[in-house]
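Thread: Newbie trying to understand structure tokens

Hi all, I'm a second-year student working on a class project, and my supervisor (Dr. K.) asked me to get a predicted structure for one chain before our next meeting. I've only ever worked with sequences, so writing a 3D structure as a token string is new to me. If someone could post the tokens and maybe explain what I'm looking at, I'd be very grateful. Here's the chain:
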Amino acid sequence: MLSATLGLTQFGVNQVTLEPRFASSQRHWHVVEDEFVIILAGEVVLVTDAGETVLHAGMCAGFPAGRADGHRLINRSDSQAVYLEVGTRAADEEVLYSDIDMRARKEDGRFVYTRKSGEPYE
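---
Reply by user tm_fold:
Sure, no problem. This is what the structure looks like when written as tokens:
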């Protein structure tokens, strides 16, 4: 995490390299934290409830906290894509996954993953 390396505590910054044919995550949205991405190299496909949008180097996207519109990035190209991911560092957070039965809650600084109902995975 770049923010930890630089001693930043108010927001998190990750430099992510997304390999060809890989996705950043499952589609998700944050209850508490804003999230922002800027593409540094290559291209990715942003997938949201509205559909798909190709993002090239220099383009960015933002995801306001509490907006129930899951998002993820997919690298459908034959080259690596590199982007910065920036987000708030809230003490408490909940992440909901749009397409699968999963949610994550930050407890004591760590995420605990459960079903959307709160039941643990067995």
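A couple of things are worth pointing out once you decode it. The mean pLDDT is 95. The chain has one domain: 2-114. Feel free to ask follow-ups in this thread.
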